[in-house]
Design the sequence.
């Protein structure tokens, strides 16, 4: 706080100081048009804009000067149980981000000074019973409010200027269903959309549309058997405990007023049906709308179209993980969507399939997916018993995880992390447990295993997003599990699992800079500008469920890495 | 809830429980009932729940520590199962009776490497 002249009473001086700071900082409101446009200096929604590029058009920091990057400021949110997974947002020089337990902060983007903070009171007895908890992956902003989900099933709206609660709506009976909201919401045109977690949990995986002004629930779409047609794809009433969910934000297509969203896997994750999955096993049928991409009307939540990436997903390879890149190629509007299996799907804007390409080498849950028809060729459906030789590839962690990839319109390349790891498992018949509260229903004992004849590793690929043609690749000894950022400065930033953030030349993949942030990364990274100065902000802090595997399987620095700590670290040029 | 029912009896038990728990948001939550004292199929429990973190049915370290040949005493294991560990393991105290926790500990103590 600036010092005021001595003849003013301190409290008056402070009030003036705060008001002046507020009015100059909060210049314009954030609305759908602004989010659609992307904004030069801002990061207005989880994926950067509705195009979902995870790309910044800023070029003040670029390939020729990135070696001069240094830390501008740091913020420590506190109570970072399971580290930090959050994607910061920035609007008009103010950065909004969350820590664990949905602790929400508004910071001065140039200095890191805390403008306001809000810590919701959560049902901590419930949190203690959860697995993917107390995760929070970030906020949405729009019409003067900041929206954040909680692990006890609520969506909260905070006044963007003051952090005061505007409304607090309970959407999921988390006390009963054990699941809540891990992911960031999406704001579009007066509606806030958020999806529950749930693939491993015997529920029905709801996605909600909530009125941004009042907090009233407008609609709810059940990803498990949400229509009469879909109900028929679950034999023996298995839809009652079907799993599903939509735990990462999708995007908004303003031309058609449509929400595009990815849905989670069905439960149990591993079925014992064998090849006859349509009539036998835990959940006979193709299990709509799990492991699908769906298009919902923004205002009514009604299903407009869908494509099921993996019918009867028997491997936990959600469609919930991936961003929806909205591209154009040869005059055709396309949507590119990565699936957790390691395949990337390319659609037209009505979710008509155009192509499927493979990001990941070690895949054997299918022999292939037909790029024209999407048919799963040579799928491995298991019966009860051991799966060892060959192991199942990829591992339950996926060939692709929920960390965002980046599309750079200047290079035309999609920068995406691929994961090469497999698993042995023993499938067992299980029974869904829903009383006294819902429990996990996995369906197998399992263990991480190296790929046949190879080592576990991760890789950053630079690919043509439509054809999958590879331009370059950088390998990592363990898969990086944070999101990736690319910029118009010809840079790709990758925060890795060991704690080092790297910058690569976006055209060639040459490493230009790196810096150790002190602990592993599993969250977001953005770039923005305040007062003519560009910043790159990222969260550091390891400890989510996926990173839990690293100490036992990789040793090294992961053995001493904290799982209850984290920081927001912001870089700029001196 | 017993995990050892089979066939129609199993379906009936599951659906009876579900009749007053599903669908999610529309209904009032039923008061949580006390944990069952029925015998537990702990092997199946691992495949559905514990094995998510305790790899290979508890035989290998993964997300969670190896349980086979655990150096921890019974009091430690009981406390950990019931209360969990903040940011690492869920609390299962409301899910299992003391008798069921005892069976889980017996199962852990009996864990051996896979044969063959």
Sequence:
């Amino acid at each position: 706080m600036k010092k005021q002249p001595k003849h003013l009473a301190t409290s008056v001086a402070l009030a003036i100081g705060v008001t002046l700071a507020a009015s100059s900082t909060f210049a314009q409101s954030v609305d759908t048009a602004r989010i659609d446009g992307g904004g030069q200096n801002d990061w207005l929604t989880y994926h950067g804009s509705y195009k979902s590029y995870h790309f910044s058009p800023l070029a003040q920091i670029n390939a020729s000067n990135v070696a001069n990057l240094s830390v501008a400021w740091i913020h420590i949110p506190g109570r970072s149980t399971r580290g930090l997974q959050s994607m910061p947002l920035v609007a008009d020089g103010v950065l909004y981000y969350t820590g664990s337990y949905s602790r929400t902060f508004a910071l001065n983007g140039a200095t890191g000074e805390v403008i306001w903070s809000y810590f919701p009171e959560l049902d901590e007895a419930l949190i203690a019973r959860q697995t993917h908890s107390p995760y929070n992956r970030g906020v949405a902003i729009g019409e003067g409010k900041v929206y954040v989900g909680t692990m006890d099933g609520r969506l909260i709206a905070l006044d963007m200027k003051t952090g005061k609660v505007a409304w607090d709506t309970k959407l999921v009976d988390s006390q009963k269903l054990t699941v809540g909201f891990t992911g960031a919401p999406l704001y579009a045109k007066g509606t806030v959309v958020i999806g529950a977690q749930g693939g491993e949990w015997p529920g029905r995986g709801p996605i909600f549309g909530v009125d941004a002004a009042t907090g009233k629930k407008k609609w709810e779409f059940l990803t498990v058997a949400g229509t009469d047609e879909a109900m028929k794809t679950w034999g023996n009433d298995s839809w009652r405990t079907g799993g599903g969910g939509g735990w990462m934000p999708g995007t908004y297509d303003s031309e058609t007023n449509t929400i595009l969203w990815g849905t989670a896997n069905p439960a149990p994750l591993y079925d014992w049906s064998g090849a006859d999955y349509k009539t036998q096993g835990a959940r006979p049928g193709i299990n709509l709308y799990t492991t699908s991409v769906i298009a919902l009307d923004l205002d009514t939540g009604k299903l407009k179209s869908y494509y099921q990436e993996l019918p009867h997903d028997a491997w936990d390879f959600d469609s919930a993980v991936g961003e929806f890149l909205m591209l154009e190629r040869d005059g055709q509007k396309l949507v590119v969507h990565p699936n957790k299996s390691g395949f990337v799907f390319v659609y037209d804007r009505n979710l008509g399939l155009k192509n499927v390409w493979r990001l990941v080498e070690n895949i054997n849950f299918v022999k292939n997916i037909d790029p024209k028809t999407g048919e799963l060729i040579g799928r491995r459906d298991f019966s009860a018993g051991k799966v060892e030789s060959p192991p199942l590839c990829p591992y339950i962690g996926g060939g692709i995880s929920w960390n965002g990839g980046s599309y750079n319109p200047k290079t035309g390349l999609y920068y995406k992390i691929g994961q090469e790891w497999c698993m042995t498992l023993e499938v067992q018949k299980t029974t869904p447990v829903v009383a006294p509260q819902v429990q996990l229903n996995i369906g197998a004992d399992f263990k991480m295993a190296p790929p046949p004849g190879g080592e576990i590793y991760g890789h950053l690929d630079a690919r043509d997003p439509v054809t999958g043609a590879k331009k370059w690749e950088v390998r990592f000894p363990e898969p990086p599990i944070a999101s990736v950022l690319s910029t118009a400065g010809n840079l790709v930033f990758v925060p890795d699992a060991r704690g080092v953030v790297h910058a690569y030349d976006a055209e060639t993949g040459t490493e230009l800079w790196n810096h150790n942030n002190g602990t592993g990364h599993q969250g977001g990274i953005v770039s923005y500008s305040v007062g003519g100065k560009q910043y790159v902000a990222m969260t550091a802090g390891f400890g989510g469920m996926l990173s839990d595997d690293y100490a036992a399987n990789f040793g090294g620095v992961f053995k001493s890495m904290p799982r209850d700590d984290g920081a927001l670290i912001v870089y700029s040029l001196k | 809830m017993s995990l050892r029912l089979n066939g129609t009896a199993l379906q009936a038990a599951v659906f009876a429980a579900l009749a007053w728990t599903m669908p999610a948001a529309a209904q009032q939550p039923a008061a949580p009932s006390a944990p069952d004292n029925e015998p537990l199929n702990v092997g199946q429990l691992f495949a559905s729940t514990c094995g998510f973190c305790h790899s290979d049915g508890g035989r290998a370290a993964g997300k969670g520590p190896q349980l086979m040949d655990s150096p921890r005493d019974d009091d430690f294991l009981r406390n950990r199962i019931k209360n969990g560990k903040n940011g690492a393991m869920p609390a299962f105290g409301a899910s299992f009776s003391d008798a069921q926790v005892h069976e889980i500990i017996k199962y852990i103590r009996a864990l051996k490497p896979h044969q063959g």
Remarks:
- The two ends of chain A are 23 Å apart (CA to CA).
